[in-house]
Prior knowledge:
GO cellular component, one term: plasma membrane
Family: Belongs to the BioY family.
Organism: Haloactinomyces albus
Pfam families: BioY
Structural class: mainly alpha
Membrane topology: Multi-pass membrane protein
Distance between the termini: 41 Å
Number of helices: 9
Amino acid sequence: MPGSPTAPDQHNPDQHDLGKRAPGDRAPRKALPAAELARTVVFAAFIAVLGIFPGFYLGGAAVPIVLQNMGPLLAGSMLGARRGGAAVLLFLALVALGLPLLSGGRGGIAVFAGPSGGFLVGYVLSAVVVGLIVQRAAPRPGLPILLLANIAGVAVDYLVGIPYWAAFTGDLRAAAIQSLVFVPGDAAKLVLVSLVAAAVHRAVPAVLTGSPRNAED
């Protein structure tokens, strides 16, 4: 009849949802907080495990070559900026509390005041930068994007670590030249991280989005 209210369409769930969700309501979270916390803890533990492999020094450099810098790259590649950065922060917090989780069994707040302290701080920014780039290609970032992201992540770590190192040597140019010994190994590590992350994202797209539902969209 004209003027009578229109009954909701029983086959259109959107009409029912309009009455249930207020205009200012936020969309559901992509992942449960517990699941996000679990991923963060797992990757912090993974970074710690990489510390089992001892570092070594080349070319008279005061900063060791380690496998541990693969951890922040992989955290950003797999978890994105927020969770990846949180995993690195958790790891560094445990180191600062004195746990010997760095390569060579190092730990304590004093390690951040040494020549390699800048590279450790750079781990956080590295994971965040990698994550921000990878998230733009979610839920299935390909190998080219992952390579680009990890190159950027390594570059950011250098941009933080080399000037910090130079504060101890008193010569920025000398620190930059000495850091060249890291480049071949870091190049190999970022390629390996990118290959692993690309394979995981193909198999389990929900790793980055945190939601199987979003991975299917």
